[in-house]
Request: fold
Amino acid sequence: MNGPAKREALIFTEALGVPVEKRAAFLEGACGGDERLRRKVEALLTSHQEIGDFLQESPDEAVSQARIAATADEKPLDRIGRYKLLEQIGEGGCGVIFMA
Reply:
C-alpha cells in the first residue's frame, strides 16, 4: 500500500472508532484541509455504513443454517417416481444424493 492509500486507510480506521456526531471534527483535523483525502475517507465511511453487518456472521455458520433450513424431506426407502431411495451417499451445495 503506497503512502496516500495508507494514510486514507489509517484515517478511515481511526474514524470508525469516533462517534458519528464527532466524525466531521475528527476528519477536519485528521485530513488537515486536504479536501480530496477527506472525500475519499468519507466515501469509505459511507460504503462501510451501507454494507452494514455483511459477513458479520461466519460464512460457515450461514451455510450450516441454510443447510438445516433446506434439509430435504426425502429419506431412505422413499420413492420418487419409479425410483426407491436406498441410502444417502453424499451431500453438496445443491442437495442430497441417494443411491437408488
The beta strands are 79-80, 83-84, 87-92, 95-99. The helical segments are 3-16, 23-31, 35-51, 59-69. The chain is about 50% helix and 15% strand. The longest strand covers residues 87-92.
